[in-house]
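User: We ran a pulldown and think these components assemble together. Before we commit to crystallization trials, I'd like a predicted model of the whole complex to look at. Sequences follow.
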Amino acid sequence: MSSFRFDTGGLIDRSSVIDFSFDGKMLQGHGGDTLASALLANGQLLMARSFKYHRPRSVITAGAAEPNALMEIGEGGRLEPNTRATMQELYDGLVAKSQNRWPTLDRDFGAINSIASSLFVAGFYYKTFMWPKKFWEAIYEPIIRRAAGLGHLSHEDDPDRYEKAYAHCDVLVVGSGPTGLMAALSAARSGASVILADEHAACGGSLLREREEIAGQPGHEWAAETLAELAAMKNVRLMARTTVIGAYDQSVFGALERVQKHVAVPDHDVPVEKLWRIMARSCVMATGAEERPIVFGGNDRPGVMTASAMRAYANQYAVAAGRSACVFTASDSGYRTARDMKAHGVHVEAIIDARSDAPAIETGGVPVITGAVVTNVDGGKHGMKGIEIDRGSGHETIPCQSLAMSGGWSPVVHLACHQGARPSWDEDEYCFMPPQDNPAIIPAGSANAIWSLGKCLADGAARGEQAARLAGFKTTKTPVPKARDDTSHTSAPVWWVKQSTGKQFVDYQNDVTAKDLPLAAREGYDHIELAKRYTTSGMATDQGKLGNVNAIGILADATGKDMHEIGTTTFRPFYTPVSFGALGGQHVGEHFAPVRMSPLHNWAADLGAEFVETGLWYRSSWFPREGDDWLAAMTREVLNTRAHVGICDVSTLGKIDIKGSDATEFINRLYSNAFAKLPVGKARYGLMLREDGFVGDDGTTSRLSDTHYFMTTTTGHAAETMRDIEFAHQALWPELDVQYASVTDQWAQMAIAGPKARDVLGAIVDTNLSNEAFGFLAAKQVKVLGSVPAMLFRISFSGELAYELAVPAGYGEAVANAIMHAGEPYGIGPYGLEALSAMRVEKGFVTHNEINGRVTAGDVGMGRMLSKKKDYIGRMMSERDGLNDPEREQLVGVKPLNPANRFRAGSHLVNPGDKASLKTDQGYVSSVAYSPMLDSWIGLAMLKHGRERHGERIMLWDGLRDVHMEAEVCDPVFFDPAQEKAHG
Amino acid sequence: MAEMLTQISALDDMIVPGRYGRSLPQGPGVALTLVHPCEVAVVIAAKGKGRALAAAVKKDFGLDLPGMGGSATARGVSLHGTAPEQWLAVAPGAAAGSLAAKLEKKLGTMAMVTDQSHGRTVMRIEGPRARDVLAKGTAVDLRPTSFKPGMCAATQIGHVGVLIACTGPDSFELSVLRSFAEGFWLGICELALEWGYEVR
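Assistant: Here's a predicted model for the assembly, 1184 residues in total across the polymer chains.
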């Protein structure tokens, strides 16, 4: 292995030794290392196997764009695949594993793919695996997925916590290189609140990676001083380890902070990652530029990397991929690398400059070969031996252990493009320039193709001021420190060295070679978006950060178009991959959705209730006694309630307090049935239609005084009904004097039902409950237990003599206990949702199982509730022909011929003898319950011509469970059709 | 007999005073307190009665009726503007039923007054990290220069509607619907772990 650590230099802390492992091998690095630099320091040049051909790979970059060095980091539930070693900070105990190789990184069986590479050209799976068709899912795809791929998941739960957070600022500066630092400084000095975000652990950007001088001191020292100045300013927030991942509408930016991705065992009190939404008035995009590789033979061999990456490894981390190097360049960057590497003691054999008119640049004594190209690399998994070059007079070889390449620079334009704008090709700078469509996103420095350090510092200062002014601040000119301001030479890029002999990669991560693009064009996929999908160039975790511009260049060449005509693919968030953990934030597991608890929850729990989730609510479902299953418990609860008395928590019903001089008129317009003449002290069942004429919701509304009403809605539609009421008042009838407030949470409400209900309630309520004084549908404000203010309603959802009592929620438990106590002599027992549901099915009362958005009032037998004498929401549309078609399904009851036969809601109705099909379908079962009173399974159903078919036989067809049975159609009211009990 | 009944908070068995979360040298980042009992009422102006209501509120409660997003406090009663012509009145520690009754008596002809003392759970979060904890849940701009004492915001934290009122430089009163209170409290506690919190 040729890579090694220099004896001196770098911004690492040599006094701190960090133990880590790679593929089980124990290694050591230093503080300040990335996993990539530490591996290089240990001579571990081989880091990965490529996606398709399983070629041995090492790092190509030292940053976020890394396509090759992807690894599995961590173990168990913390295992994270596809982590870029270049971005992973080293920490004590770090466990890294290479991926996509078998059995080992060194001896990878999959490398056989490389030999058969002619089979695996672009679009191979569309061509090779066409036949037989059913083999694709069963055989081909699993094999390809196994052979070609990235890391794997542990399938264990992630033990760590993730959070989301919002931040607000006047100016967001993305990137803390020289441009970003000056931008943050100048914006902050205006008084604007500034967030400076940088994806790396250490801020300073290129100043940490280059040998530069600013104001007479080393660049990294100037950066440290400037950061300290910024940190001391109250209006500045520095966010290191934070990648700004997306730019969204109205200057909202997404950012991912890696809070604890650099420790072995995170502090559980602190999230490992935070997903930020940053609302900024303006943004300075100081995201820098990405150096482009050159496409030539063997450009993926371990030891080959971009010129800037080689400098970064040498200057920041004091490591090199080899003791000798060559440089292949079409830009000035290669010369900097030659000089820097020489200064670090690496023997630089030669600079191969593709430009025949290469400008005269200081080489530090390294020989320059102009007008020449690298055609192949002699190397393998253990490193390079040399390169093959062509200077126009045949091939020759130069021995070297590493190769720096520079095809020019591409501004990192992503954030300026996330809202759909496209970058444009600049013929002078030979790069795609960021679009300037969004005035709030201001590209600065090398992200705007400004190349010299001095000019970047000045541009940063100016853009920071511009951003602050945009946010409404007055600025003064920020002094710009002195730095080199040399001219940079830009030249026409070399996209592809066609005379190469080895494999030439355009997109490293997807193993897309230069030949794949002309092939795609020949086969008709010459649009860049089509070429991307056909060749996979620009896909996967790096989204072509390195390869895309070369791919565009090669495609332009192949199609005879210019760069501008080809254009780029779409830039979409996220800039770099984001974990699902971060996207989920704290809303996982039991916190996935908020939970609503009834004020009687603990009361029910103390009585042993089992709970069921209904929407966000937890409702008491049944109250088992020893050995009871739900059916036994429900049966006992129903029988007890119908014979004696029961109490049920109905606090979850929506409750709305309505007042105002026009309250009566308002309510009369909301309900389809008449409410104008509802007397004070009375409740009425009401039906609400939607605007489209179908049934929306139902409930009871009670008149407490001339101008005061109390409305209830179903549990499930409470929020929608409140919304509809607000809309009706605010948008349709603002002239009405009416006020309303949701009081769902203010009241604990309980139903007391059964023949003994009056006796029980009489003991705690201060009012005469006789039929004469408080008859069916009476409603009244009363006092319970002497002085607790309460509302009492004589309404029944069970068909029994029943009351609903509402008391302030905080007294709910005490009152429910008092009722239980008062009811003891009468044999009172609690009943849950199961019993409530069984009793309402016995009575044929509808719920949202029936009024499911597709039924009319007529369908459920409530046609008479559509008033002809007034207007109300939904009236006009309810009169449409289709809603009054005699062919519509109508509410009926169904009883299986064998009462012990259980059937399920959702079963379809088919005439006996017919084969079940869409054509023969007669309707469906909407609700099913076991009826303790009938000792039979019973159901409510929607049946064509249902009301005329009572007594007929029908088939209940349940294709899901393959359960079918014969049943009798009947009236939907199974029990006490004369309503004698409720009125009793 | 009602005097013998105790109003049970939705967080009745949730409040266990103590220090939780990360222990930092500078002490807990926030303190969390349940405000109980706490009288709460919704006040909504009747049509065309906004001015008369403002005058009555000034006269009888010594308060300048705040606009939406504003809060005013006097004589132990706060009014928070939650929507156009709509307020949440809050009186910590007042006698059960007294606030709504008093408001109804003085303002009943100009506004709808609805008692919410049992329907809302009120809590307080204060301390140097209070703004940071809340910023994990709400998109409201909570910078000290933007969200100051005397301001309030109806917003959401963790999908739960909450009224945040700024009561001091780093103090906030949170009111949520009672049924959501338990989950909300647990959620806020979790968001405060990072800087440590104290339950009082």
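Chain B touches chain A through 58 residues (CB under 8 Å). That may be worth checking against your pulldown data before setting up trials.

User: Thanks, that helps.
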